């Protein structure tokens, strides 16, 4: 598997070159959000607003009203948690094209509870006019810019930084409202988003080897959540559905799937994996994923419960599974 | 139209005497409405009538209203599925580079704003009949579909930041028009205001002018009792702003700071006002002036007599 180092840095500079109305506003986390070089490349389009997120949201709103396309760069918790009223009233209510680039989603930071955005998808999903996206690999980090740019209204993006795996080929960019079908099978349907997709890519082949056939969907659009592919995948699951999210199980991907299943009378069990209505703490991503059951092993155990049998898969088996480059089964031309 | 210093002069620039009379008519119109509806936001009109009249009559350079005189019904909230949404800012004229913009912060002053729009011929004479009526845009606490309201600011202290972004955007585009904000003093208790002041100063946004109605009143009573904001002028100057403390009922004193050449600092005009101005009877209720509710029929009758003897020429 290819690992891409800081894909946003150069990609965003290239992407913004012919878009003079794109501006960046930042709240003292410029290098932490990989836009330090962007600032040095386009100093006339970069605005440091300091550690003052409430005011930053208002400035972004005002710039958007004047025809600019502000890309707010800060940590996710400082986008939706601290200045929520400003986000809702100054940006979301007027449906302004502000792009909220929310770094360090969920437990991807060792920064502990203050830095871990664990209920952001729930809150942003509940915010009218908001489009909610999540990047799961380097290709999505690169292509989410076009997706957000095309939306007439505010967009919240769970953004990955640093060393990011490339799970999907660059020829298959993120598309709004379209899940990626990464594996097909009729026993269980697994839906993942963001960093949890890589976990499922480890678990699904092992499950297949043990005779548990899974359909695996990678979700990058949390809202709107109306992809017919998702509903089809939910309907085909004979034993049940599993969601695995880097987020509390209240209000995020698991809840969105539950709503869809209830609305369409999809009568099969749903297991929501994620943070079980708890805050987390400061530790490594791998440690926290194991501690809170956000990893491949948790997925295997959930599949076993739904299938009603022990697969015999152990931690060591999952560690052996190499994640190969994955091509989406859902080709653009097939949709 | 010509520009003189920072200020573009239009044919509609009013004489001081005309502005003064207009302010008194705004006050009377709000008083009349409050009596008709059995209560309302009256003290805000008493304190800010000259502020509104001076902004519309002497300070702001606005084009002709782009909105119908008759307020339209509620057009739905802004959104990608609602192309028929119309901004209340259209009442303040076209959004063109040479024109100023008006950002209205204390949204509960909406009644005063509507009365001002009527006096300046931007809203129909009888538009207040739609005030607070179900399905109307003439809402009690205006949002950006309401006449004269460009941004949604009922959650206080958000306007100054939005105005900062608008001013920054206009400067990036090279637009000469200025951005005027009307605020109330209670808002300075919100931390966001000070975040905004430091950003306005940091980016030298001298195309922003903030007029604050310093009436020492907020919902719970006197500002200085609820949570003291202290010497606003000194605090703002310490942040690096350009500050004028003026008598908020003196039209010439209110208008003068807007005519001074810009010097790189955001402009604050602290308009010290009397929330019982024109209706001295209100003083009996102090410090509970925020929203006038009649405790008895006898009280209502006393206010009715005060209204009937209200001197429009005063």
Concise account of the structure shown:
In chain A, 36% of the residues lie in helices and 21% in strands. Chain A has 335 residues and is α/β, with parallel strands linked by helices.
Shape of chain B: globular
Query: Over the alpha carbons, how many angstroms does the gyration radius of chain A reach?
Result: 19 Å
- Tally of alpha and pi helices of chain B: 9
Overall mean pLDDT of chain A: 95
Mean pLDDT of chain B: 94
At CATH level 3, the topology of the largest domain in chain A is Rossmann fold
Please state how the strands of the largest beta sheet of chain B are arranged side by side.
4-5-6-10-9
**Helical stretch tally of chain A:** 13
What's the CATH C level of the largest domain in chain A?
Alpha Beta
Biggest β-sheet of chain B: count, sense, barrel?
5 strands, parallel
Q: What is the second-level CATH architecture of the largest domain in chain A? A: 3-Layer(aba) Sandwich
Measured by DSSP, the beta-strand proportion of chain A falls in: 15-25%
Low-confidence stretches of chain B: 1-9
What is the 3D shape of chain A? globular
Spans of at least 5 consecutive residues with low confidence of chain A? 330-335
What is the CATH top level name of chain B? Alpha Beta
Description:
The complex is a heterodimer of chains A (335) and B (314). Chain A contains 13 helices and 14 strands. In chain A, 36% of the residues lie in helices and 21% in strands. Chain A has 335 residues and is α/β, with parallel strands linked by helices. With 314 residues, chain B is an alpha/beta fold. Chain B is 35% helix and 14% strand. Chain B contains nine helices and eleven strands. Chain B is globular and about 55 Å long. The relative contact order of chain B is 0.16. Chain A binds chain B through residues 47, 49-50, 52, 54-68, 85-86, 89-90, 93-95, 128-129, 151-153, and chain B through 77-80, 143-144, 151-155, 158-170, 172-173, 191-192, 195-196, 198-199, 202-203.
């Amino acid at each position: 598997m290819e690992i891409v180092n800081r894909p946003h840095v150069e990609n965003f500079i290239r992407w913004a070159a012919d878009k003079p109305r794109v501006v960046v506003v930042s709240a003292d986390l410029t290098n932490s959000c990989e836009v330090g070089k962007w600032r040095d490349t386009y100093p006339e389009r970069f605005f440091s607003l300091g550690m003052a997120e409430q005011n930053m949201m208002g400035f972004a709103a005002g710039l958007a009203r004047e025809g600019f396309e502000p890309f707010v760069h800060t940590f996710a918790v400082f986008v939706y948690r601290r200045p929520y009223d400003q986000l809702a009233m100054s940006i979301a209510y007027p449906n302004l094209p502000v792009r909220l680039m929310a770094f360090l989603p969920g437990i991807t930071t060792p920064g502990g509870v203050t830095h871990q955005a664990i209920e952001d998808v729930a809150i942003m999903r509940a915010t009218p006019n908001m489009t909610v996206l999540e990047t799961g690999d380097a290709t999505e980090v690169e292509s989410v810019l076009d997706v957000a740019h095309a939306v007439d209204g505010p967009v919240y993006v769970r953004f990955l930084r640093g060393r990011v795996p490339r799970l999907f080929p660059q020829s298959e960019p993120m598309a709004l409202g379209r899940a990626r079908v990464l594996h097909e099978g009729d026993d269980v349907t697994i839906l993942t988003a963001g960093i949890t997709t890589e976990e499922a890519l480890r678990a699904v082949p092992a499950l297949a080897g043990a005779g548990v056939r899974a359909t695996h969907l990678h979700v990058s659009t949390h809202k709107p959540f109306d992809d017919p592919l998702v509903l089809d995948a939910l309907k085909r699951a004979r034993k049940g559905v599993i969601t695995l999210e880097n987020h509390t199980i209240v209000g995020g991907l698991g809840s969105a799937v539950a709503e869809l299943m209830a609305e369409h009378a999809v009568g099969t069990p749903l297991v929501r994996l994620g943070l079980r209505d708890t805050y987390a703490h400061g530790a490594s991503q791998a440690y926290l994923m194991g501690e809170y059951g956000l990893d491949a092993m948790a997925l295997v155990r959930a599949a076993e419960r739904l299938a009603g049998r022990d697969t015999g898969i152990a931690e060591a088996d999952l560690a052996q599974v190499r994640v190969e480059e994955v091509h989406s089964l859902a080709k653009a031309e097939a949709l | 139209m010509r520009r003189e210093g920072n200020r573009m002069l239009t044919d509609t620039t009013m004489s001081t005497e005309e502005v003064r009379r207009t302010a008194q008519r705004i006050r009377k119109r709000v008083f009349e409405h409050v009596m008709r509806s059995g209560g309302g936001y009256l003290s805000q009109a008493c304190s800010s009538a000259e502020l509104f009249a001076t902004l519309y009559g002497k300070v702001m350079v606005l084009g002709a209203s782009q909105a119908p005189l008759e307020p339209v019904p509620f057009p739905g909230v802004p959104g990608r599925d609602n192309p028929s949404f119309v901004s209340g800012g259209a009442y303040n004229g076209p959004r063109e580079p040479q024109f100023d913009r008006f950002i209205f912060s204390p949204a509960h002053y909406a009644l005063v704003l509507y009365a001002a729009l009527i006096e300046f011929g931007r809203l129909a004479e009888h538009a207040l009949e739609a005030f607070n009526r179900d399905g109307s845009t003439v809402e009690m606490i205006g949002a950006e579909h309401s006449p004269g309201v460009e941004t949604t600011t009922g959650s206080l202290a958000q306007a100054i930041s939005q105005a900062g972004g608008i001013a920054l955007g206009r400067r990036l585009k090279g637009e000469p028009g200025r951005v005027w904000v009307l605020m109330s003093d209670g808002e300075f208790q919100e931390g966001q205001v000070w975040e905004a002041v430091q950003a306005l100063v940091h980016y030298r946004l001298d195309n922003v002018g903030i007029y604050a109605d310093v009436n020492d009143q907020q919902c719970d009573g006197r500002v200085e009792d609820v949570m003291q904001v202290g010497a606003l002028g000194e605090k703002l100057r310490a942040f690096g702003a350009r500050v004028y403390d003026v008598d908020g009922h003196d039209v010439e004193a209110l208008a003068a700071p807007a005519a001074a050449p810009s010097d790189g600092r955001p402009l604050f005009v602290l308009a010290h006002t009397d929330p019982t101005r024109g209706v001295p009877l209100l003083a009996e209720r102090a410090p509970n002036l925020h929203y006038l509710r009649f405790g008895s029929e006898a009280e209502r009758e006393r206010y009715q007599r005060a209204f009937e003897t209200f001197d429009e020429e005063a």
